């Protein structure tokens, strides 16, 4: 199955002020997530940010919110966005959910497992997920794969949303996001 821009939403899980410093690659995670938000934003993909207990863990990073100004922000106490019942109807109305964020083996994993159980087609952006240890990262990704989620990269998402080199934004997107060194 391919990502369909008319059926997909991007869900960015818990990339928050007081959590980012604990993951293995904070700067890279932020840069890759910002790249994903900017590129998919130019293609009109809706975005939802989740925040785990923002009173204690802070908000979604300002630079990510800046890259997706129209994004909805939802708060939760459950690790799973689905268990928290916080996902907006606009996301739930679509068949596909593209997921990234942190931590891979906790909030991302539990949300993805619940989305798969709910019959959603889930695409986990491996290069825009992070957590506190490489073992937890690998184990979380494998468990989501075993549950039926599709593992993708940022470029896979971008090219599937474009569909062809004939897309009206292909030249702009390729020159802006695919030339030179990427995060």
Automatic annotation (TrEMBL):
Gene Ontology terms, MF aspect: hydrolase activity
Keyword Hydrolase found: yes
Domain Isochorismatase-like, first and last residues per copy: 9-155
Annotated transmembrane regions: none
Keywords: Hydrolase
Keyword Ribosomal protein set for record: no
PANTHER family assigned to the protein according to its UniProt record, in alphabetical order: HYDROLASE (PTHR14119), ISOCHORISMATASE DOMAIN-CONTAINING PROTEIN 2 (PTHR14119:SF3)
Annotated protein name in UniProt: Hydrolase
Species of provenance: Pseudomonas laurentiana
Top-level taxonomy: Bacteria, Pseudomonadati, Pseudomonadota, Gammaproteobacteria, Pseudomonadales
């Amino acid at each position: 199955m391919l990502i369909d821009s008319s059926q997909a939403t991007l869900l960015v899980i818990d990339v928050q002020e007081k959590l980012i410093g604990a993951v293995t690659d904070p700067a890279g995670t932020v840069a890759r997530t910002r790249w994903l938000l900017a590129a998919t934003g130019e293609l009109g993909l809706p975005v939802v940010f989740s925040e785990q207990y923002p009173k204690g863990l802070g908000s979604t990073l300002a630079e990510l919110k800046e890259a997706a100004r129209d994004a909805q922000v939802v708060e939760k106490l459950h690790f799973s966005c689905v268990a928290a019942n916080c996902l907006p109807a606009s996301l739930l109305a679509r068949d596909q959910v593209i997921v990234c964020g942190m931590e891979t083996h906790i909030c991302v994993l539990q949300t993805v497992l619940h989305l798969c159980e709910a019959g959603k087609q889930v695409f986990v952006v491996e290069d825009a997920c992070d957590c506190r240890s490489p073992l937890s990262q690998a184990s979380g990704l494998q468990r989501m794969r075993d549950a039926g989620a599709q593992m993708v990269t940022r470029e896979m998402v971008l090219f599937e949303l474009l569909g062809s080199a004939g897309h009206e934004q292909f030249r702009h997107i390729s020159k802006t996001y695919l030339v030179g060194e990427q995060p």
